[in-house]
């Protein structure tokens, strides 16, 4: 299902790009988004796993970009935050004896794959640098 992870991650990376030489705290990042710092730390952990950011602990600790903004595409961010966008499935398994029920999930899978491919194609051509230049 669709969540706000992409928007949160993009917000974090945009803020970090505006302060490239500073380590920003999760409290500062969360304050910009008006969300709980725990949510920010979860996304920072994912960004660290993908080598997008580096962090340090302590009084002057925080997080900063580990890659150049021109080397990060919005598709990179999309793929880090979603395995696959899905608009969902019925709560119960469909009736396999029904002509629609036996193929609905298979057809939804194909539709969702197509949607994901189209999203990826569009986002691939937009760098984080291009996006952050709007601010």
UniProtKB/TrEMBL annotation:
The source's superkingdom equals Bacteria
- Where does this protein come from, organism-wise? Flavobacterium rhizophilum
What is the name of the protein in this document? Answer: Rrf2 family transcriptional regulator
PANTHER family tied to this protein:
HTH-TYPE TRANSCRIPTIONAL REGULATOR YWGB-RELATED, WINGED HELIX-TURN-HELIX TRANSCRIPTIONAL REGULATOR, RRF2 FAMILY
